[in-house]
Write a structure and sequence with these properties.
Elements: H1 6-11, E1 14-19, E2 22-26, H2 32-45, H3 52-61, E3 66-70, E4 80-89, E5 93-103, H4 112-128, E6 132-138, H5 142-150, E7 154-159, E8 169-175, H6 193-197
Parallel strand pairs: 5-6
Antiparallel strand pairs: 1-2, 2-3, 3-4, 4-5, 6-8, 7-8
Family: Belongs to the acetyltransferase family. MAK3 subfamily.
Protein name: N-alpha-acetyltransferase 30
Domain N-acetyltransferase: 25-177
């Protein structure tokens, strides 16, 4: 396998897949350089400013849900990134959350965002049996809304003046199991996140 080669072992990279000539990796929690490049990509292309501690929290707590994209296996440049987490929601369902998704403008139009979301959702189902996946996006971001809705996400709530720029957001939910559509009051408690992970 490609990821078993000396180059991958030397650089501690975990190749997830290759799609249409682009390489998708799981974030290397030991790489300060990778962390720095992810921070730069996100801060340069998201409208909402985030503290570096937000990246650190996500990347160090849920590295299994951070994926990066490169033009080639040896390239130092990151052209796409998705950062997510999974937690128990009110102790009755497992909820995935997509916190950040950024593609370098020069690489947009190549379905990188679509592949990253699919990869993330599939991993959430495999690793943590999520019942739903949630995210927020700006009401005016038609491209993002089109992407997520094409993948099955539905608008669940409008959040007024949600962002620092005063723009509204939509909360979007992707139902995975029947629990997602069931009122919380009618759901039995689930095992704790820690118990499920053991």
């Amino acid at each position: 396998m490609l990821e078993d080669t000396d180059w991958y072992k030397k650089h501690k990279m975990s190749l997830i897949t290759e799609i249409e000539g682009l390489f998708y990796f799981q974030f290397n929690v030991d790489s300060q350089d990778e962390f720095s490049k992810i921070s730069t990509l996100i801060s340069g292309h998201l409208s909402e400013p985030y503290s570096i501690y937000v990246y650190w929290f996500f990347l160090n707590t849920w590295p299994q849900y951070c994926y990066i994209v490169k033009e080639s296996a040896e390239s130092p440049d990151i052209v796409g990134v998705i950062i997510s987490k999974v937690e128990a929601h009110r102790d009755v369902r497992m909820r995935g959350y997509i916190g950040m998704l950024v593609i370098d403008p020069a690489y947009r139009g190549r379905k990188i965002a679509t592949h990253l979301v699919k990869l993330t959702v599939n991993r959430m189902v495999q690793l943590d049996a999520v019942d739903e996946v949630m995210l927020e996006t700006e009401v005016i971001n038609k491209g993002a809304l089109g992407l997520y809705e094409s993948l099955g996400f539905v608008r669940s709530k409008r959040l007024y003046r949600y962002y620092l720029n005063t723009h509204d957001a939509y909360r979007l939910i992707l139902p995975i199991s029947s629990k997602s559509g069931t009122r919380i009051a009618f759901l039995p408690p689930i095992e704790s996140f820690e118990a499920m992970a053991t």
